[in-house]
Structure formats: C-alpha cells, structure tokens
Amino acid sequence: MKLMIDILFWMFISSLLFYILAYVLNWISYKYLKNRILTRQQWDLNICCGTTDGGGINADIVKHKELPNFVLVQDIYNLPFKQKQFEHVLCSHTIEHVDFPIRFHRELRRVGKQITYVIPPLWDITAAFNLLEHKHIFLAMRTEYKKLPKFIRMPFVNTIHSLLGQKIKA
What's the whole-model pTM score? Predict the structure, then answer.
C-alpha cells in the first residue's frame, strides 16, 4: 500500500512539474518573444493579426476587435494587395493553421519584400503540438524566421478537426 501511495505521489508531482514547465515555456514563446518581435519595429502588414496592432495594415479573415487600418481578407492565398506593396510583413502564429503553408508563403512573398514568421518552436510543446488548432508542426527551435522553416503535416489532423472542429480556421 505504501508503495502505491508513493507511486501516485510522484506521478502527481511529476505531472504538476510538467504542467508548470509547459506553461512557462508557452509564456516565453507566445508572450515574451512574440512581444519583443512585434514591438521591435512598425510592420507594414500584420497578416492574420488577430487582436494585435502591428502599426500598419492589420489584416485577418475575421475581425476579432477594432484595430486601426483593418482589412478583412476573404482568401489568404489571394491577398487583396499589390505586388511588393509592403516592405515588412509580420506573420505571427498563423502559418501552422493553414492548409497549404507553401502556397501561403508564396502569396506573402508576392505582396511583401521582407517576411518575418513567428512560429511555435518545438520546445514550446503545448503550442507546437496543438492538435486542436494546428495543421502543421514546424521543425524549428527558434521563434522568428525570415524564411519558411521545414514542416510536417500533423498526423490525423483532418480527422480530428472534422470530429471536433478546428478552433482557429484559416
């Protein structure tokens, strides 16, 4: 009986420590590092902006809240902007949600000169392996990239999203 209690105790402690570590890593990745990148400069285009003002044009498929210079986008693979219209484009925590990342990347390259991707790094396990929201895992250890990192499609993601729905759709 004592052995069983000890095992359960250490299982609880290790689960609690894992949860705390995952929370801290997610905060570092999603809040701290993302905010440092966002506030480093003004972004000419903040694509799939959510509730974040990038300082220039803020574009998304859904209007989450009032933002200055907001543009509602109907098709992320055919953006309503001219070729090379933007010097600096920010794509933060977006590309892991889309069906066709390479196609979206090509469209961002069409409208922007310098693209900055902010993606969940592999060490942020709660974000990188989020089966309910993401369609792809990016094989990346950093948060910020100027080129599209290698990625793999999450296994069974279409089945999971069809059964449970995708929380964020792009």
Answer: 0.88
